[in-house]
Amino acid sequence: MFDIDPKIITFFAIPLSYFIVIFSVLLIQWGMVNLIGRHIGRISFNHPKLVRAMNWWGVFIHELSHALTAIATLNKVKEFKVTSSGGHVVHDVSGRFGFFQWAAAQSISLAPAFVPPIIVALLMHYLGYIDFTRVNFNAGDPVSIIYAMYLDLMPYIIETTGWLFVNLNYSKVGNFLLLLFLTFSFSSAKPSSISGKPGNQGDIQSVIQMSIKFPVYTFLFMLISIFFFWILFGYNIPMFSIVLTYLLLLPVLSIFGLVFNFLFIMLVNLFDRSSLLRIIIALAASVLVYAGLTQYFAAQYIINISSIATLLGVLKLLR
To answer: H-type helices in the chain, by residue range?
Structure first.
């Protein structure tokens, strides 16, 4: 019987355990995009212009993700088209097709899942709200890695990011713009998938097709990823912890954005079922609560939660 060296198993199993957790969070993001996309129809009848604007912005961010990644991978963007019902990006593959061109093509296809949260993360960093440089994460075997990431690191990232958004003072222009971008930029934050349309190919089909068509490149990419993992893991644990945290932060930001988008749609839908007088009363009550609790930092969540609860509570009572 052939025995596999435990070191070889460890070489592959530990990186794979990290990749599994990150991929699972991306799947949650994927599912939420599909779910939120259906809810926008609830306000389409009463607010067709708003829905078109939201769709246009979502498509714009989606296609911008493709275009920026194409430029970053040294490919020329030949066509950039955006409408409220869809869009596309056409780019040239520079030079002879090889591994780097293959990796660039795959990155361009998957860009909508990563570029929008990267933009949000950069904006948050610019505003001084994001700092995970003190995170200390280290686990030595696959089971403890998955356990620690799901029950320790992930809750920490979600809690820290959630309290950040709740504690922000949205009367500041920068914070308000951050909220707007977060709320409206993730409705198309996934690679597109086209089915039943001969002659068209979605991003997902492209990634799968390119992975199957070039299995050597796919395997080589996996090996390079594993080697890079061990280089970072072995020589710079603090940097490894930061990279890992930010890799998990990106889909978490997407999920928060999708939740805000859902709450916005529900709030608009609730307003539609209320009279103008009831809306004015609810808004006035919300402003009074906000103005009466002008304490920021740790207590800011009381202001925001109380304001939203009062607004929704008055609307429901006055229906």
So the answer is: 6-39, 48-72, 99-110, 115-126, 142-148, 154-167, 173-184, 203-213, 215-235, 237-272, 276-292, 300-317
Q: Is residue 142 part of a domain?
A: no
Domains in the chain, number: 2
pLDDT above 70 as % of the chain? 75
Q: Quick one: pLDDT at residue 199? A: 45
The span from the CA of 156 to the CA of 58, in Å, is 29
Instruction: Provide the 3-class DSSP secondary structure of residue 132.
Output: coil
Whether residue 285 sits in one domain with residue 238:
no
**Residue 53, domain member (yes or no):** yes
Tell me: do 115 and 263 sit in the same domain: yes
Rounded Cα distance between 192 and 263, Å, is 24
Cβ–Cβ under 8 Å, residues 265 and 193? no
Of 130, 146, 133, the closest CA to residue 238 belongs to 133
The torsion region of residue 194 among left (phi > 0), alpha (psi -120 to 50) and beta comes to: beta
The rounded distance, in Å, linking the Cα atoms of 114 and 189 is 8
- How long is the chain? 319
- Burial classification of residue 13, based on how many CB atoms lie within 10 Å of its CB (0-12 exposed, 13-18 middle, 19 or more buried): middle
Contact between residue 319 and residue 269 where contact means Cβ atoms under 8 Å apart: no
Sort strands 77-83 and 86-91 into parallel, antiparallel or unpaired: antiparallel
Which is more confident, 87 or 274?
A: 87
| 145 part of a folded domain | no
Residue 22 clears pLDDT 70, i.e. is over it: yes
pTM of the model as a whole: 0.79
Lowest mean pLDDT among 74-83, 87-96, 104-113, 189-198: 189-198
**Which of 251 and 96 is assigned the larger pLDDT?**
251
